[in-house]
């Protein structure tokens, strides 16, 4: 059990990229961290490194290695989190940073190369709909209360196209819609909900996109700040937005990209 002076954040996708960087930055800002990740032996050291860095900052790190879109595992993880919360404590921030989807075209010369209904559904389930389900479950358990913040990682791909990116683009567009709806429905509870649109960032998730080298090169060439976005850029902004003075900021898609998106 923790005391009521402790602040907890829950990071979905906490082992690398935006989620890992944000876990560390929030720990630096005084948050204890609940982290969810899905890693096997090869990538598990990433999650262990994040936990070590959080603890080195004097904060608690409670991580769960699981499929975040599995309802039974979600319930078990929330049970585990509540064991660390005192009766009057809540989760001050939920960050949805899940990047797991299928990168296949909608149309191809060979029917076997196109995305399947199961792959399409899985991509939207993990990268979009799970935000709703986690928020619902946390509200039902009184874990998100007045002053809590919910953030979801989107991208410029929500409104743009790239070969094989169709299902992920659809998921990002749906995610932004879910953010608006949740912001509307949670406003009476004084829970703010916003999407974070990071610039093109060199992460493990980006490297899975065919042609990601061209994405990085293009973003670096036309970003007016002279470089591409880093996970740390985004993490620092999210930590700043965790301040109680941003409580009136809700329902937005907030760009953190050094001006990348304003350049044609």
What does this structure look like?
There is one protein chain. The chain is α/β, with parallel strands linked by helices. It has one domain (7-259): 3-Layer(aba) Sandwich (Rossmann fold). The chain is 41% helix and 16% strand. The protein has helices at residues 17-28, 44-56, 71-82, 117-140, 166-186, 204-207, 212-222, 231-241, and strands at 7-12, 31-37, 61-65, 91-96, 149-155, 192-198, 253-256. Strand 4, helix 4 (117-140) and strand 5 form a beta-alpha-beta unit. Helix 1 (17-28) packs parallel to helix 2, helix 1 crosses helix 8 (231-241) and helix 3 (71-82) runs parallel beside helix 4 (117-140). The protein is globular. The mean pLDDT is 93.
Spell out the blueprint of helices and strands.
Layout: E1 7-12, H1 17-28, E2 31-37, H2 44-56, E3 61-65, H3 71-82, E4 91-96, H4 117-140, E5 149-155, H5 166-186, E6 192-198, H6 204-207, H7 212-222, H8 231-241, E7 253-256
Parallel strand pairs: 1-2, 1-4, 2-3, 4-5, 5-6, 6-7
Helix pairs in contact: 1-2, 1-8, 3-4, 4-5
């Amino acid at each position: 059990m923790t005391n009521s002076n402790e602040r907890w954040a829950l990071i979905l996708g906490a082992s690398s990229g935006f989620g890992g960087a944000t876990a560390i930055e929030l720990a630096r800002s005084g948050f204890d961290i609940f982290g969810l990740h899905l890693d096997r032996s090869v990538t598990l050291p990433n999650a262990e490194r994040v936990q070590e860095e959080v603890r080195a900052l004097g904060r608690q790190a409670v991580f769960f290695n699981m499929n975040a879109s599995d309802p039974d595992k979600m319930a078990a993880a929330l049970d585990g989190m509540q064991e660390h919360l005192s009766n009057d404590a809540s989760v001050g921030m939920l960050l949805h940073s899940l990047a797991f989807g299928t990168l296949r075209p909608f149309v191809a010369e060979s029917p076997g190369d196109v995305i399947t209904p199961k792959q399409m559904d899985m991509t939207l389930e993990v990268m979009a709909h799970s935000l709703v389900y986690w928020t619902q479950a946390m509200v039902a358990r009184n874990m998100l209360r007045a002053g809590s913040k919910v953030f979801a990682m989107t991208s410029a791909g929500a409104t743009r196209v790239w070969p094989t990116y169709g299902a992920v683009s659809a998921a990002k567009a749906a995610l932004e819609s879910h953010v608006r709806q949740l912001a509307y429905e949670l406003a009476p509870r004084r829970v703010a909900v916003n999407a974070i649109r990071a610039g093109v960032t060199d992460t493990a998730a980006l490297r899975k996109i065919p042609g990601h080298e061209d994405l990085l090169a293009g973003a670096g060439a036309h970003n007016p700040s002279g470089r591409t976005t880093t996970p740390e850029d985004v993490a620092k902004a999210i930590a700043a937005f965790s301040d109680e003075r941003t409580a009136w900021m809700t329902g937005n898609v907030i760009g953190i990209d050094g001006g990348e998106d304003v350049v044609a």
